[in-house]
Amino acid sequence: MAAEHDSCCSRCVTFLITIGLTALFLWLSLRVDEPKCYLDYIYVPALNKTLNSNSTHNKNTTILFALKLTNGNKDKGIQYDDVLLSFRVFESVNLTRPLGNATVQRFYQGHQKKATKHGNFSGGGGNLTAAVAGRMWYRVDYATAVKYKILFWYTKRHRLWGGANVEIGDSGMKVYRKAVRLGGKNPVVIESGASKLSGRYRALLLSLLLPFCGLWV
Ligand SMILES: *[C@@H]1O[C@H](CO)[C@@H](O)[C@H](O)[C@H]1NC(C)=O
Ligand SMILES: *[C@@H]1O[C@H](CO)[C@@H](O)[C@H](O)[C@H]1NC(C)=O
Ligand SMILES: *[C@@H]1O[C@H](CO)[C@@H](O)[C@H](O)[C@H]1NC(C)=O
Ligand SMILES: *[C@@H]1O[C@H](CO)[C@@H](O)[C@H](O)[C@H]1NC(C)=O
Ligand SMILES: *[C@@H]1O[C@H](CO)[C@@H](O)[C@H](O)[C@H]1NC(C)=O
Ligand SMILES: *[C@@H]1O[C@H](CO)[C@@H](O)[C@H](O)[C@H]1NC(C)=O
Ligand SMILES: *[C@@H]1O[C@H](CO)[C@@H](O)[C@H](O)[C@H]1NC(C)=O
């Protein structure tokens, strides 16, 4: 009688452990990281001061850009819809004027891959300039939707969007040399250099503190 009870109990425990492990496995394999989107390169020939000693006489309205998209997932592919880009120029700290739109065609990206997509368009109705306190700032936004490929299946679509303010220098290229993350929460307002620095310190502080928070959760 007791032996029968034991085997029932151990079967029950085995069952629960199996369920638990299956749930953990499912959770791990269904968890996805969103791709990251960066403005890798932008070049506005009309703003190249070396090229145009007479910049107001330059009629070249081309804007060239490269978008970088990274898939950090270890074992999931990503199917992107068309990536819609909009470019605007700041006329004051909180007011922008549209320059034009561009589209990066839909594509598939394997796991842990980076993709750089070049494009160009003609914009601004001929006027690509505006100054805020003597400096030129562009606003670049993207919007798309992605499906994640898990083994042989695709998840439903997830919408993604974001943008960043990008300072354009005298070479017609962006001043910040590294790729600029088009993050979801970057406000359409030019902040002072000081507040940007404190933002970076906040991120650093957070990344130092997060492992400790893990101990309490
Ligand atoms: C700007 O124009 C100069 C003169 O034509 C050229 O040498 C330079 O490469 C241009 N700058 C960029 C970033 O292409
Ligand atoms: C710049 O513009 C002025 C006035 O239109 C003109 O006289 C001059 O030749 C131009 N210079 C160059 C390098 O195009
Ligand atoms: C504008 O500049 C780009 C890059 O230098 C060049 O490829 C393009 O042909 C130019 N367009 C015109 C109309 O000059
Ligand atoms: C934009 O900035 C100006 C001053 O630079 C301010 O008066 C105005 O309220 C701001 N507008 C918005 C919508 O924040
Ligand atoms: C660019 O796209 C936005 C929406 O994303 C739209 O409101 C705007 O009219 C478009 N501009 C041009 C020049 O097509
Ligand atoms: C601009 O884009 C077109 C395709 O839309 C491409 O054929 C052309 O080579 C591009 N020009 C430059 C300078 O990248
Ligand atoms: C372009 O727009 C800016 C801001 O609106 C203005 O100050 C500038 O005079 C314009 N340039 C031309 C050539 O129209």
From TrEMBL:
Organism of origin: Glycine soja
This protein's record includes keyword Transmembrane helix: yes
Coarse class of the protein's main subcellular location: membrane
Record's protein name: Protein NDR1
Key words of the record: Membrane, Transmembrane, Transmembrane helix
Any Gene Ontology biological process: defense response to other organism
Transmembrane feature ranges: 12-30
Record keyword Transmembrane present: yes
Compartment(s) where it occurs, according to its Swiss-Prot or TrEMBL record: Membrane
GO cellular component terms given for this protein: plasma membrane; plasmodesma
